[in-house]
Amino acid sequence: MLPLKTVFMGTPEIASRSLLDMLRLQENGIVDLQAVYTKPPVWDSKKKDYIESPVEKIARENRIDLRTPKTFKNNSEEINFLKTLAPDIIIVVAFGLILTPDILNIPLYGVLNLHPSLLPDLRGPSPIHYTILKRLKFGGVTIMAMNEGVDTGPLAAQQRISLDKNENFHRLYEKLSSTGSLLLSGVVETIYKYRINFFECGYSQDLLKKKDNTSYDLTSLIKQEELRIDFCKDEPAVIYAKIRAFSESGGAFFIFKNKNVKILEAELIADNTWEKTGTESLKTKKDVQFETFEYSDYCGGFSDIYKREIEKVSSKSNIVAGTAVAANKNGLLISTVKKGVYIRLIKLKPEGKNVMGYNDIINGFRIKQGELICL
Known about the structure:
Number of strands: 15
Number of domains: 2
Number of helices: 10
Structural class: alpha/beta
Shape: elongated
């Protein structure tokens, strides 16, 4: 049986993992990689050089025909090139360019796309961030046949994965990259064996409904104002989710003494008193697939050291949200709007400074126990 004539389109690390798996399938005679598409190199002002994508590096190392168009819109040269190749399949993984209808209709068995969420939930450009921001206990990957909509094509396969309560972007990205590449390889092997076109026989997303009849969530590009944290006002679960979701860039920040301070690493900790306040549960979905972490998941093992530090502060005045209830060698522990729930800051990056541990932050900003840090 002849291998599938294949064109691969992708740019970042998650795509490079899938491309490596396609190379392994090529060694086994399942695919024939005819061309690789990726976004053009990006100029790095610090290094004074153009930085090629992870996919471009692999393509060059393996001497695969490499294409780097800036757009497909009104680009007859690239469209005619693809028509000349007459691929059996086109594989798209985090490519970054919109495919025109002309391109979607070229391959014999359609265009396959790897999406790092359980579609139809979390359609759009930021599914990994939103998986953490929504505090989900489960995430996953989907292989779909692309149509002209945004992540709306028929489903070929899905794989669910469990998330840790402390999951951050980097760890989740790695999990989804490895899970997605394996699932994609399996779908490609299925097409090779049975010559299936999932655009024609895949499972329609319109047939999927949640048990509680609520709508699926869409993702959008993350805006700068969404990165800001206010310890005096924000829900602690939201604060902690932001820190973990944007950990790869240290994007989440708070303002202290007129300086932006990015949070690279932190911990959410809770004692048992939060349950006695009558506060609501974080759980908002009935479906197991959409189950979210609750504060009770962070209870247990609350340090006696922190209990003593909190008692010191509370003996002098009422603890309000945003108070540094510990600011010494024992840690930098911040109270929140939920009684009994705290954020422990571990690694931070003040504006114009290098990354610092909590001790250096305490000393550099002269933070004192009992001080408000949301000013």
